[in-house]
Every structure is written in C-alpha cells, then in structure tokens.
Amino acid sequence: MATISISNLRATGANLFADSESYLSELTDAELNETKGGSIIAGAAFVAGVIIGVAISVRIAKEVC
User: What is the pLDDT at residue 55?
Assistant: First the structure.
C-alpha cells in the first residue's frame, strides 16, 4: 500500500506571526501587558448569568411550593 508523508505542516494563520513585518514586534511591553483577551468581561457576564439563574430558580421554587 502507498504511504503519504506530509512534512511541512503549519497552522492556519501562522504566517501572520512568523512574518518579518509582524505587528507583534511593534507593540511595547506596556501594550502587551494591557491585553486581557476579554477575560474580565467574560467573567462578569458569567457571574451575572449565574445570579440571574439562581434568582429565577428561587422564584419558580416559591411559586411551586
């Protein structure tokens, strides 16, 4: 049976980071430290969702009892 060998695999978009004109080299250390990736907003949205879910559950439980 034939064997196929692929030796030059690269993740999609990897050339954006490996290019000599990469935008990442233009960022200062302070700017890199400021990047949060939205984790604060995502965390706040999660907590708000949990609080709303608990409030709805409590209200439904009171109506049933």
Answer: 93
